[in-house]
Amino acid sequence: MWGLLTYDVMGLIGLIILGLIILLIIKLIIVLIPAAIVAAIVYFLTGSMWWAGLAFLIVAALSVLKKL
Fold first, then answer.
1. Each residue of 36-46: pLDDT tens digit?
2. For residue 31, with 0-12 CB atoms within 10 Å meaning exposed, 13-18 middle and 19 or more buried, which class applies?
3. How far apart are CA 27 and CA 49, in angstroms?
4. How many other CB atoms are found less than 10 A from the CB of residue 51?
5. Do residues 63 and 39 make contact, with C-beta atoms less than 8 angstroms apart?
6. d(CA 6, CA 42)
7. Strand (E) positions, the chain?
8. Which of 59, 28, 29 is nearest to 42 (CA)?
9. Cα–Cα distances in Å, from 60 out to 22, 23, 35, 51, 66?
10. What pLDDT, in 10s, does the model give residues 4-57?
């Protein structure tokens, strides 16, 4: 009886952790969407992956700092 109860509790804890991880990933994607859009625009204008990457990092950093 106790073995079955611990599996249920462990399963519940595992699902809660999995749900939190999924929520954090979704939130991170939503925060990084503007940076990806700016990087895509910079890439199409310049054709340079270096400038696009730099634009992505700058906008992503500003987005993270804005959230703080």
1. 999 999 999 99
2. middle
3. 25
4. 14
5. no
6. 53
7. none
8. 59
9. 20, 19, 5, 14, 10
10. 667 788 888 999 999 999 999 998 888 889 999 999 999 999 999 999 999 999
